[in-house]
Structures are given as C-alpha cells and as structure tokens.
Amino acid sequence: MGSEHPLERNLALELVRVTEAAALHAARWMGRGDKEAADQAAVDAMRNALRFVDMDGVVVIGEGEKDQAPMLYIGERVGTGRPPKVDVAVDPIDGTNLTAKGLPNAITVVALAERGSMYFQPHVYYADKIAVGPQAKGAIDINAPVKDNLIRIARFMDRNVEDLTVVVLDRPRHEDLIREIRCAGARIKLITDGDVAGAIMAAMPGDTGVDVLMGIGGTPEAVLAACALKCLGGEMQCKLYPRNDEEREKSIAAGNTDLDRVLTLDDLVASDDVFFAATGITNGEFLRGVRYSGDFAQTYSIMMRSRSGTMRRFETNHHIGLKRNLPSGAAYVPD
Asked: How far apart are CA 234 and CA 238, in angstroms?
C-alpha cells in the first residue's frame, strides 16, 4: 500500500452492501410509528455488515449520541482489521421520524476516509450550515446576510434569486431564517428531518429541485454531508451552535475556544480520498425507497468517491427469501 494514496483499493461495492443491509431491515418499520425499533434494526444490520468490509475502521461519527438513539459507538472498531486504516462515519437512518411516519427521503448512510481526517466534536451536537453544489462553489459566506448569500449563489448559477429553492429544517429556531429567505424572494422546501439528504440534494447533478441548504442541524450530519459534498465538488460552511452554557463550557474546556470559527469542507473531512454510500429507505427526490415483493426486494443506492470524482447508482434485486437458510438470529447481508 503506497503512502500517497492509502486507500488504493476501491471499497465502493462493499460499502453499498452495508447501506443496503441497513435499509432492508429499517424499511420493514416504515410507517409503523416506532422510530426506535427502526433505528435499532438499521444499527444491528449495519454493524453486522461492516464486519465483512476489508478495512481497519474506527467509528468517528455514530450519530445517535445527540438524541440518545441506538447507534454504533464512537471509537468502535469495525471491519476485518486489515488495511486500510480509516475513519468511519455512519447514520443507520438519516430520518428516523421519516421512516416511522412513512414520509419521503429517509436514507441510510456510511462514509469513510483516511484515519484521522474526520472532524470530531463530542460536546456540541448542532451546527449552523450552508451547503451548495459545484455551480455555486465560492459563492457562500456563512457570516454574510442570508440575502447576500442568495444573490451570490444565484449569480454563480446564472439564475435569478426567485429561481432558487432553499431546503430548511422545519424548526421554531428557523423562524427568522425562513422570513429572511422569503424576503429575499427565494423559494423554500421545508423538511421535518434528514438534512444529510437535504445537503446532498443541493449538490447533486440533475434536477432534485434543491439549490442550497441553510440552517441549524446536527454536527454529525454535517460531517456526513461534507463527505458527500467533497465527492460531488460542492461546498459547505458550518459554525458550531451550542444549545446551552453546558455545551459551550465543555467545548471550551476541551480546547475548542473559538466557537465562532467557520468550519470549511476541509475542516470537516481533511482527506482528499473519501468514500460515501447511501441507500434509500423511503421514496424521495434523492433516492427511491426499498420495495418488497414476497421473497424479493429492490434497493436503490448511490456510491461516490472524491479521489476519482466517480458517482455510481445501484438498483439491486435481493432474494431475501434465502435468509431462511441463515443461522438463527443472523442478519441478512446483501451479497
């Protein structure tokens, strides 16, 4: 293994198998109103599938800690233990509420990069974010007024501000942001959950109907989205958003004294060789959801790599009836 590019082997298909496994198990809980059960099913399936990936992985982003949901734990070792040594970021379900309610755009996500390259912030669980695709790269400044950002994004994309669609989490904390976007003349797509998918839709080539993500969401999700945006050539800026004095004091005590620092894409994931994979759980603009038919199921996935700029889409047919031949209690892992 060369020192210039430690991730010489393409792990694309192995990572897609991981997200497929999580999606196949989580989607059984779609619309059943039990987000904890859906999350647990996805976590268990993802943990099991990661065991078969040829890597020496350490979980840096486990996502569930901020809301005390089931999770892969920070520092957990995953993979076969063979090289390459990598940081791993996971979100078994980006959009647990979406899954539980049968709403669009729930996905399962995994990303990896060279060891030590992913941003880790254990004390401040939320961050203010702005994310765009490659057409608007260089246009954004998270410290600038919302209107100024939208004018610059529109100029870079050769559009009018009125043509832009901004995706925003539907939260009371965003009342002022929503008002400013509306005053600027842009359109808004409110989402109840799932801002990883929101950020990716803003950067995806083709027509997802979204041009920019704005607002406060999870810090772990920011790292996951940054991995995807690095593959897509987009741009993201973040600022930590402590919810209370306790989070602020813990972060400062840990050495993060500049809470107003703007985190760029390279701060969130320093490596230039990043893998990102996602599989749809419920139907959405980004990915179609899992479809079951007796002993068979279909999944729809995407896989990206920043080093090559490659993006692959997978439509996979699974013979899940074969799981009856697995040992009792074993989770189904796509082949």
From this structure: 14
**Distances in whole angstroms, Cα of residue 93 to Cα of each of 26, 112, 319, 331:** 8, 17, 23, 17
d(CA 100, CA 127): 25
Residue 183: CB atoms within 10 A of its CB come to 10
Q: Are 331 and 21 in contact (CB under 8 A)?
A: yes
Residue 306 DSSP symbol: T
pLDDT of residue 141 exceeding 70: yes
Residues 6 or more apart in contact with residue 46 via CB below 8 angstroms: 18, 19, 21, 22, 72, 90, 92, 108, 110
Tokens of 255: 């050495």
Backbone angles phi, psi at 246, to 5 degrees: -65, -45
Q: Are 142 and 130 in contact (CB under 8 A)?
A: yes
Q: Token pair 């997802």 is at which residue?
A: 208
Residue in 227, 27, 308, 264 with CA at minimum distance from that of residue 138: 264
Place of tokens 């089931």: 70
Q: Residue 222 is encoded by which pair of tokens?
A: 């920011």
Nearest residue to 238 (alpha-carbon basis) of 210, 206, 216: 216
- What is the model's pLDDT at position 2? 40
**Residue 185 zone, left/alpha/beta (φ > 0; ψ -120 to 50; rest):** left
* C-beta separation of 242 from 128 below 8 A: no
∠ Cα 245 251 252 (to 5°): 90
Nearest to 308 by CA among 3, 10, 4, 2: 10
Q: What is the pTM of this model?
A: 0.91
Segment (H or E) for 47: helix 35-50
pLDDT digits (tens, 9 = 90+) for 208-259: 889 999 999 999 999 999 999 999 999 999 999 999 999 999 888 888 878 8
Q: Which one-letter amino acid corresponds to residue 3? A: S
Q: What is the pLDDT of residue 1?
A: 35
